[in-house]
Amino acid sequence: MKRNLTLIFLLFSLSCMADGKYFGGDISLLKSYIDHGAIYLNQDGARIYAPLSYFCYTNEMNTMRVRLFVNPENASDEDKGQGVVQDLEYVKELGHMIKDLGMAFMLDFHYSDSWADPAKQWTPKAWSNLNDQQLYDKIYDYTKEVLEELKAAGAAPDFIQTGNEISYGMLWGPVGTSSPKKCYAYDDNNWPRFTNLLKRAIQACRETCPQAQIIIHTERVAQPDYLKAFYDKMSAYGVEYDIIGLSYYSYYHGPLASLETALTRMESNYPDKKIMLVEVGYYHDWQPNNVTYDLSATYPISGQGQKAFAEDLIALANNHAQVNGLFWWFMEANENGLDWDSNRVTDNWYNAGLFDNQTGRAEPALYVLKDFLGGVGIHQPSLPSVEKAIYSIDGRRMEGQSAPLHDGIYIKEGKKYLKK
Predict the structure, then answer these.
(1) Dist CA 261 CA 264 (whole Å)
(2) CA separation, residue 411 to residues 186, 278, 388, 396 (Å)
(3) Which residues of the chain fall short of a pLDDT of 70?
(4) Do 25 and 354 form a contact (C-beta atoms < 8 A)?
(5) Most exposed residue of 103, 195, 238, 245, measured as fewest CB within 10 angstroms of its CB?
(6) Please, what is the end-to-end C-alpha distance for the chain in angstroms?
(7) Which residues of 79-89 are buried (b: 16+ CB within 10 A; e: fewer)?
(8) Are 88 and 107 in contact (CB under 8 A)?
(9) What pairs with residue 296 in β-bridges?
(10) How many whole angstroms separate alpha carbon 264 and alpha carbon 256?
């Protein structure tokens, strides 16, 4: 029974990824939203009871990304209120859900207790007294232990980011360090240390999850010269990886022309590397007034404006043969159904996800992301003979029922059908 269902999901996922393209989103807070009772609705206002399954089966998404912190309990209250909760046990559960649906799983290591990005790459509190040699060993041991536990939990990652937005290095030092060991592409001072850390992390990945592809993630799209210099350094110092990962937010990095320039530059200089847009996003409501670039004249801050942005982004990405991944960041943001005084997930609304925070209804952009597949779409695979039991879309057998009681998508005899 379990074997047949697993086979269905496996064949399904293989057909999703047959053209070698991967798309979905960073859903690192989805477990928290589900646990707190957030109500997700589709574009027609019908309730989505299994959001992750809905992303996969209805919207053809085949890969999901999840971040991991070393010990988020040490994060500030402000950072926890922004969504810093993903410890290893959290990621095991969410990663297992992703793999159970036959989707690929991208693990995003934040080698920190809180947000790791270009402005913050602080060493975890428990590692703060280690010297550089000890840190080389620690990052290897930690990475290996994490991956071994994920494998044992049925959540082995298929893609691994050894660091998040590491344009200026990582593991700088304890918070507030006066000389944090930042690493700049035009300065050789800290590159031996930085690349040794990366090599040891990658070594642990190759040994423990040899099938996984390694992503080196930066976000200097608006500075293509710096971007090239960074990856030139990766080559010069012998850092072995598979995929160039980029963040692109138009409100920070400029119009799509900036992304076009960066992608063209990367493809020209690194023809042997695939490129993934591992973080993208655009507001559908209430864009902050302090964004660097305001593109609302071209893409209004509305559901339709967000959709138009997504369509143009996908068209651009599909013009670049090396771009084989696209992931919408924080797509699951949805405060509908939550008690804001006592049961909220974050302290502030993020209005660039793919659901309306107030109504829980899916935004139009959710339904155009599948265009990244280039029209290939999902093909129903030929399946072996399977039992005639009925399963919910998230894999639960409908015990004792010849037909499900509630409306929704179900699996019977290896095929999906909709009960209305």
Answers:
(1) 5
(2) 55, 31, 9, 10
(3) 1-19, 375-420
(4) yes
(5) 238
(6) 26
(7) bbebbbbbebe
(8) no
(9) none
(10) 12
Name the amino acid, one letter, at 186.
Answer: Y
Measured from the Cβ of residue 307, the count of other Cβ atoms closer than 10 Å reads 20
Residue 80 tokens, joined = 């926890």
Which token pair is 196? 């040794």
Q: How far apart are CA 305 and CA 326, in angstroms?
A: 19
Which helix (H) or strand (E) segment holds residue 256: the answer is: helix 256-269
Structure-block tokens of residue 342: 């006592």
Contacts of 128 (CB under 8 A, 6+ apart): 173, 174
The tokens of 194 are what? 């930085």
pLDDT tens per residue, range 105-136: 999 999 999 999 999 999 999 999 999 999 99
Query: Which pLDDT score, from 0 to 100, does residue 408 have?
Result: 63
Q: In which residue are the tokens 């992301």 written?
A: 369
- Tokens 């779409």 belong to 377
Contacts of 296 (CB under 8 A, 6+ apart): 287, 305
Backbone torsions φ then ψ of 384, nearest 5 degrees: -70, 170
Task: State the number of CA atoms in the 13 A half-sphere of 59 facing the CB.
Answer: 28
| Chain centroid to CA 44 | 26
Contact indicator for 258, 222 with CB cutoff of 8 Å: yes
